[in-house]
Amino acid sequence: MHRRDVLAAMASLGLTNVIGSRIAQAADEPAIPAIAGPDLNTIPPKFRAPAGSVDTHTHIFGPAAVYPFSPKRPYSPPDAPLEMFRKLHEAIGVERAVIVNATVHGFDNRVVIDAIAQSGGKYKGVANVNNSMSEADLMALDKGGIRACRFAFLKRLGGVGDMKVFRTLVDRVAAIGWHVDIYLEAGTVREFVPILKALPVTYVIDHMGTISAAKGLDDPEFKALLDLQASDDKCWMKITGLERASAGTAPFHDSVPFAKQLIDNAPDRVLWGTDWPHPNVKIMPNDGTLVDLIPLYAPDPAVQRKLLVTNPEKLFKFTPVT
Hints:
The chain is an alpha/beta fold. It has helices spanning 3-12, 16-28, 82-92, 110-117, 135-143, 163-174, 189-197, 220-231, 242-245, 256-265, 287-291, 294-297, 301-316, and strands at residues 54-58, 96-100, 123-127, 146-153, 179-184, 203-205, 235-239, 270-272. It is globular, with a radius of gyration of 22 Å.
């Protein structure tokens, strides 16, 4: 059928205005921004991670042909599939991982569950959940190796949302033994302190509370983060995102003193992770360079073992290495 015949048929059915309006509406919708992928030329780190080390904050994206991205996603990453994920950990000498389901996959947690199933016990996961999920849904995730759920309180990832729903979900996952993962907007630590202290469950703060190295160690937000960490035994901290905190360029040494203070403040409640494949960063880091920061902020081998091995084993319920 020729184009003019198609248009004539549409007109006879009264469809031209409908389709035209839909095209116009689609044109008015903002495009989903694309982001860069990771640096695939991993520099072999000089620091050798202890046996059984766990990368507690990492992601898998797609492949989108198998695990479609959410149509409501805030950004579009290139595929960073399980095969690439495994190569990264082999290159940096890390054996185990916690896969955090990112917002690009919405509430579809299959990409995480399937990777855990293929890991032989080496992976655990952090899911995205909502209140439409039944108790059976949550228990199935738990059986599949999920040990926590994540709440991202960032405007670019959807904002704070309904805090009553947040608290309801926290109560539900607490009942099955999960903790919660908290990603805060920069500059909101003091605002969230009373909310977090009131939680009935262990919570882990992502990316060192999204502090800014440019503001210095005396920044009131960083002081509030240290106080929260010291005063609440439910508070754990992820030593991740040094490239996000940095005011400079690689190797992000200006972020090291912040990481060191957080580790020294509560060495039994800190975790390490790469944040691979580093979505939405201003400067793409090399993961080998990030690994070589570990002995700078955790020079004591006993503390390194807590940070990389025994703390994540305890929180995520990995089988302890011997």
